[in-house]
Amino acid sequence: MSTSRVDELINYFKSHNKIREQQSHSAKVHSVGWSCDGKLLASGSFDKSVCIFSLCPDRLKQETTFRGHGGSVDQLCWHAFYPELLSTASGDKTVRIWDTRTQKCTANISTRGENINISWSPDGNTIAVGNKEDLVTFIDARVMKIRAEEQFNFEVNEISWNKDSDTFYLTNGQGCVHILSYPDLELLHVIKAHPGTCICIEFDPTGRYFATGSADALVSLWDADELCCLRTFSRLEWPVRTISFSYDGQLLAAASEDLVIDIGEVETGEKIADIPVEAATFTVAWHPKQYLLAYACDDKDTYDRKRDAGSLKVFGFAND
């Protein structure tokens, strides 16, 4: 990518670096995500609730709060092409599906452990959910029934699918990415991606690349076909907890316990912008159609430092 494009992006964020904050939870926000059409943003929290916001031109507006989980909502993800469907993974040993049109829970699937991560396949047919005991459960999203379970004998961190939904990826505590075929769940490849724990994984919207974040403070970018590492992003100093590609695949946001969220240009690795934060950041998500980044930090209440702020923020609104 030309230097002019990098300069364009840097200049864009100089005039689009306004942050909007929403305080809607009573405890830490674990996960944020945009609906596929970008009209809604969801947040899941330790307070057992899910909040839904609509996007206005210059801010967010809270629409509704979903309650029903009996434990922390650790991760959420939306359906790839039905913008009203949201899935949530909770420590209460269930996966729930919510419909924003009816504002109700439409399915409640019991699983065998406390769930910590979830990934909905791009074809919409399968929801994979991982628990604290490294068991991954595959739910057929068409009938909301468990189709398969796979127990791993190592620490499973984050899970993801390729663009065609026929291979399943997971990151582990030994710094590896395991790639399995789906639905047969046969091990195809093990990539030794990092010397430290491999924490998070994300595919870019084109399906050409995936990125991994690790305890070694690096983000590595991989060619999804060749399974070779193309480059690393090394501006953070703490374990990388969360990463997200922009809608066009040109930007990669990464966050950690550093007091900054790093935004790099994918083709060159160059820094485009950073977002100053006051606490560790555990979730980031780019909007599916524009350069807006939702994120949530381990912020404390302004007046009572022992209490979580329960807030989420969106960066990238036009400056006044």
Keywords:
single chain, 320 residues, Methylamine Dehydrogenase, Chain H, 1 helix, 4% helix
What's the CATH H-level homologous superfamily? YVTN repeat-like/Quinoprotein amine dehydrogenase
- What is the top-level CATH class? Mainly Beta
What is the H-and-E element order? HEEEEEEEEEEEEEEEEEEEEEEEEEEEE
Between the first and last Cα atoms, what is the distance in angstroms? 30 Å
Please tell me the overall pLDDT.
96
Instruction: Give me the number of helical elements.
Output: 1
Structural class given helices, strands, pairing? mainly beta
Total number of strands = 28
CATH domain fold name: Methylamine Dehydrogenase, Chain H
Strand share of the residues?
Answer: over 45%
Percent of residues in helices: under 10%
Global shape: globular
Number of domains: 1
WD repeats: 22-55, 66-108, 191-232
GO cellular component, one term: THO complex part of transcription export complex
Protein name: THO complex subunit 3
Keywords: Repeat, WD repeat
